Amino acid sequence: MIRSRILATGLLSLFTVACSGESETVLSQIDNVQKPTSTKSDISVEFDDKMLSISPELLNLAQGEKGEFTIVTQPNFLIDQVQGCGALLNKSKNKVQVMGNGKVCTIKVTSRVSSPPIAVTSSTSGYGEFVALAQTVEQGSHFEIQVKPQQDYELESIEGCGSEYDAGTWVVKNAQSPCHLLAKFKSSFDTPEAFTHTIRLPVVVHVLENDNVQIEDSKIQRQIELLNLHFRQSKLLEDLENFSGRSKIPAAQIPFIADVGIQFYLATHTPSDRPFNGINRVADQGFISAASILGSMYDSNKYINIWVGEKSPEQVDDAVAYLAGTSEVASGISIDYRALANYNRTFDPNLKKTLTHQFGHFLGLIGHITEGPESGHRFLPCGGDTQQSLNCRNQDLLFNYMRNNSVDDNDKRMFSISQAEIMRNWVTSGPLKQLYHNNIDKQ
């Protein structure tokens, strides 16, 4: 009862005060406590007479609130400097961006006469290209340089126009005429020790898309990079011994791990000679079929065709190499989209070797290691003509890429030297010689 009376008395007192002449003051105090207001401050721009207009004329921003001014300059003038209020200039859009800091402040913007544009020319050595390079830039300007090597090449350097490598990016900081850029690309691999030259072959990947098959370009590009590692650097990968818990190739067989000297890159032009990224996307709602293959195939005398799509449940694991010079439906390789390796530049011996295995067939390795006709490669000496060995035949190689599909990917880690010889001869003087000669200028 005592507590109730106190509460009632308190409410009565509040009512009494509210009816007095001080009611407005009390209510104002209550409002101030319940609804704190944020402080905003004015930010203005001071500019010279070379500016045409600024919009808006004033920003009223709370602390931490972002805003921007749009500036239009007179012809042949550019914004030179922006100072004050922590403002930043977006040159490409002629906008000044600022954030409220709780203080009234003024941004000072100055302009200058723009210099006449200068031409930017370019050339390359090796295999790669410039990406979205401007044809003209303002004299004295700063711009970044982007390039794209082919899958078996890498950028070595960029020269000319004051270009330099800065914080992971190639840039020109003060463009002056003449401005010519030279991008030098080099092979990611050395010349093979067992052979006199490297063979390079273009690949076109036909992605037969449906509701299940949606493959990013980057995954296809990584698959080609992985294919090159298998054909060019299997010995290095074995020497690295990066992975614990795996069986090692016997020491007696290591000398026969081949650098095949064949490498692959995504084609750069379509049959009609249009620039191209090497990936042909085709709408195809069914499973991979002869019709979808023939309907999308590029000239097999100029490209290696790879079809990636959905196979029927009973054929998911059945990748197929269609050999040139035979009665097959086409020349190329077809695989289920689930057989593509998810390679991220960290070599993993358990990654799918399906495409590598099928490329072996496509390049002439007809007989498997433990099956197939005796005219196949399984009875050949591991070292071939360059490194004869009576103590090692291909059928002895437990870790060969051409082992059948019952062998784990972990145990497919090498081609032999004699297998490399077969594949190179198949390309240069066998069924694929027309493909090789049509691309002889890319070697």
Automatic annotation (TrEMBL):
Secretion signal, residue range per the UniProt entry: 1-20
GO molecular function annotation = metal ion binding; metallopeptidase activity
- Please verify whether the record's keywords include Disulfide bond: yes
Q: Where is the Peptidase M43 pregnancy-associated plasma-A domain?
A: 293-426
| TM spans (from-to) | none
Q: Name one GO biological process term.
A: proteolysis
Belongs to which family? Belongs to the peptidase M43B family.
UniProt organism field: Pseudoalteromonas holothuriae
Under the heading Pfam families, the entry gives:
Peptidase_M43
Keywords in UniProt for this one?
Disulfide bond, Hydrolase, Metal-binding, Metalloprotease, Protease, Signal, Zinc
Superkingdom per UniProt: Bacteria
The cross-references to InterPro entries, in alphabetical order and at most eight, read: MetalloPept_cat_dom_sf, Peptidase_M43
Q: Known SUPFAM superfamilies for this protein? A: Metalloproteases ('zincins'), catalytic domain
This protein is called: Peptidase M43 pregnancy-associated plasma-A domain-containing protein
